[in-house]
Amino acid sequence: MQDIADHIATTLKGLRQAQGWSLERAARETGVSKAMLGQIERGESSPTVATLWRIASGFRVSFSSLFGSPTRAMDGPLEERRVSIDDSVWGRDSAGMRAKLLFPYDPMLGFEMFEIELAEGAESASSPHAPGVVEHLVVVEGELVLAIDDDWHLLKAGEGLRFFADRPHLMRNEGPGTLRFHDVIHYLPGAASDGSG
């Protein structure tokens, strides 16, 4: 967990320096306060998943680039790739959400995949992601209450929904026990980079 927090701190600082942005400019672009960004860069704060999404959207990078090293683009035909997920978990945040990276962002395929858990009674409100971001949610366990703009959806285990994520959306666990779902995030061309420059 601390390794991921250190990586997020280093990555945020590197992204900001690469853009030539002050903390004030980064706050304007991401919607995250200057004080919070400074605390994250210094490793003094563990941001929520929602805050990390605002940072990724503001910098136009993939969400998974905040968690680990960029994935290299494949040079030739699609190849098999095994991933280790043991060290790619952002622990349960103050909103009761936990994100486990299953497949990091792949620039050739334009997607990344997470397993998300929401504790009983927890919800996560997301501000709009960058234009061209599409989410595919598939519920594995529990029931997901999902609001996209003002449209409400109830997804049970085995059900899924695809939607443009450049709109406000809210995910909530109203049932007993933990809610677990897979989140495949697809970036249409130009919607994100891998954060490597």
Automatic annotation (TrEMBL):
Cellular component, GO annotation: cytosol
GO molecular function, one term: DNA binding
InterPro entries: Cro/C1-type_HTH, Cupin_2, Lambda_DNA-bd_dom_sf, RmlC-like_jellyroll, RmlC_Cupin_sf, TransReg_Diox_bact_type
Keywords: DNA-binding, Transcription, Transcription regulation
Start and end residues of each HTH cro/C1-type domain: 12-66
Pfam families the UniProt entry points to: Cupin_2, HTH_3
PROSITE patterns: HTH_CROC1
Keyword DNA-binding found: yes
Superkingdom of origin organism: Bacteria
Name of the protein this chain belongs to: Helix-turn-helix domain-containing protein
